[in-house]
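User: I'm writing a tutorial on reading structure tokens. Could you give me a worked example: one chain, its sequence, then its tokens, then a sentence or two explaining what the tokens reveal?
Assistant: Sure. Here is the example chain.
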Amino acid sequence: MRKLYYSGGSIIISDQVCKAVLRYARALSHHNTSDLIILPAFTEEFGKGVAHILIGPASQILSVPTADLDIDLADSRMVEILESRTKELDPDRPEWSEDVADVMDLDQYDWGM
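And here are its predicted structure tokens:
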């Protein structure tokens, strides 16, 4: 799970949705356009709900790891939708695993990259 900070607030979303949101926000900024996205999310108190976020060229988004929750947000469809929209804007962009690596063990990470 990741905490996504945006415009002075935050929501908790799955790692996969977070990656898809970041990639889509970057693609939108490259095309100087915006979009309203609706995400399955948790509140600060871990209440299940839906977040509405307007992302675009001026979006400043930060995500950080948060406590792992054993709760399924059933968000695989959201990932598909965001990745599809991203591919429409940036069809030649590499897949996420080639684009930004997950860091599981900070002691082993090469910070000089």
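What the tokens reveal: The beta strands are 2-6, 9-13, 35-42, 48-55, 61-65. The longest helix spans residues 15-30.
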